[in-house]
Amino acid sequence: MAAPKKNDKPTKATAPVVPEVTETETEVTETAEAIGAKIEKETRERIAKDEMVTMMFPKDPALQDNDQFFVHCINGVIYRYKRGEYVQVPKTIADTVERKARMRNEAVQRISAFLGDGKNLSE
Hints:
Elements: H1 23-48, E1 52-56, E2 69-74, E3 77-82, E4 86-90, H2 91-117
Antiparallel strand pairs: 1-4, 2-3
């Protein structure tokens, strides 16, 4: 890096230009928040009417010991259940958890088949 010349004047630092938020952008943000709140409210109401089923979320040895809860979120509504105990959960959540477990098992089987004999999965 070259040393500054005697006649060079130092340049002044300028503050970054921050665009102003317009009314339209504010309205869009407020509208998005209102839509999110409406979806969350509708989800709470729908799941509150759901049939309850008993299930247990097993403790996962891969997780830390202090992770005693299973957390599930649907459209911004967060549900938290204690692991290792039978609990009552809405059927929607039970169905989602079971579907996720099936998908994970299928993925593990496909990966194991691929790694086990070296064949291409598309065959």
